[in-house]
Specification:
Oligomer: single chain
Number of helices: 12
Strand content: under 5%
Largest sheet: none
Order of helices and strands: HHHHHHHHHHHH
Helix content: over 70%
Distance between the termini: 34 Å
Radius of gyration: 25 Å
Structural class: mainly alpha
Length: about 350
């Protein structure tokens, strides 16, 4: 057998192995998404665990404290928001004619402008559209909740995997670096640190943006005496994590909730979100992505679309840090190839 024939056989063998691995990955893609989600969650939560560990002096207690805190926040949100949302949505449907009459015949600035510009007929004709908007907004909320809790097995699996990764992370890290050849260890450490900083920086940046959105929303709702101001602000912060559509869904929910209180409150919140989302999209997000993940808007969008296609909401949330990590590895590979070719 000559060299060219051996080369062809090697190429065919490598191709067969590659196709086999792709087929295997496709068969277990759901489980791989769970593992990947748990991995990035553990990286994102590790700084918080380390902070708690400095206080409680035990990593196990620190991990337990972090998850108890998360469970408490989730319980608070569900108890504070779901029953009122259902009840007030029903009230909105029942009292819609009265709200429309108050809007048209009231003494507020908005009502005066409606009469001044002869918009009474248009407001009355749009009553059904307002109800449709409210139903779709609340429906979106419940749809996302349904998707989040639809697979209890998936949620529990990701939770358990994340806990074990946080608990055993230092041990596995030490073992892994012990297996890396010493001459490559420093470079591998540098790559790992870059990816770690990208993930934790992304999480920290989005936590700050979410906290800002939640705080401003809660303050405005409190000023206008809208019920459940703090829980609604927290909901805006949580939905702000969902790429592309999350901020719009959170805003729509708050606008509808503000409409329950008064039409003017709903109008003010609508104007606020229109302005704030422009500031967030064009100023805050580029700063976060530029200083942490360092990805172009096109790559961010591609990563999110792939993440949604593979893993739905969870895939969308982890898509950007995953894309940033892949980008770091790709850039390093290209840089090393250019050095070798010179």
């Amino acid at each position: 057998m000559n060299i060219s024939s051996r080369g062809i056989l090697k190429i065919l063998g490598v191709t067969a192995v590659f196709v086999g691995l792709l087929s295997l990955a496709y068969l277990v893609r759901l489980q791989l998404i769970w593992i990947g989600t748990a991995f990035f969650l553990s990286i994102a939560l590790n700084p918080l665990v380390e902070t708690f560990r400095k206080v409680v002096k035990s990593r196990a207690l620190a991990v337990t404290s972090v998850f108890l805190l998360g469970a408490g926040i989730l319980t608070f949100l569900l108890a504070a928001l779901v029953p009122p949302l259902v009840h007030q949505t029903q009230q909105l449907v029942e009292n819609s004619p009265r709200y429309t009459d108050e809007l048209v015949n009231g003494s507020s600035v908005v009502s005066e402008q409606i009469r001044a510009y002869h918009l009474v007929d248009r407001v009355k004709s749009s009553q059904s559209e307002i109800l449709k908007y409210a139903s779709s907004a609340s429906g979106s909320f419940f749809s996302i909740l349904t998707q989040l809790f639809a697979s209890l097995a998936a949620g529990l699996t990701i939770l358990v995997l994340t806990i074990f990764m946080l608990l055993e992370g230092p041990h596995w890290s030490t073992t892994f670096w012990g297996l890396v050849p010493e001459k490559r260890r420093a470079h591998a450490h540098e790559l790992a640190n870059q990816m770690y900083k990208a993930v934790t920086g992304y999480v920290t940046g989005y936590l700050m943006m979410s906290a800002l959105a939640a705080t401003i929303t809660a303050v405005l709702l409190t000023i206008m005496n809208v019920p459940y101001a703090v829980p609604l602000g927290i909901v805006v912060g949580i939905f702000d994590w969902l790429p592309i559509v999350g901020a719009s869904i959170g805003a729509s929910l708050v606008v509808v909730a503000a409409l329950f209180s008064s039409v003017s409150a709903g109008f003010v919140m609508l104007c606020f979100f229109l302005v704030y989302q422009q500031v967030e999209n064009h100023i805050l997000q580029p700063i976060v992505q530029g200083r942490t993940v360092k990805m172009s808007p096109l790559l961010v969008l591609i990563s999110v679309l792939i993440g949604i296609g593979l893993g739905g909401i969870l895939g969308a949330i982890v898509a950007i840090p995953v894309g940033a990590s892949v980008q770091i590895l790709a850039r390093d590979y290209v840089a090393r190839r250019l050095v070798h070719t010179k």
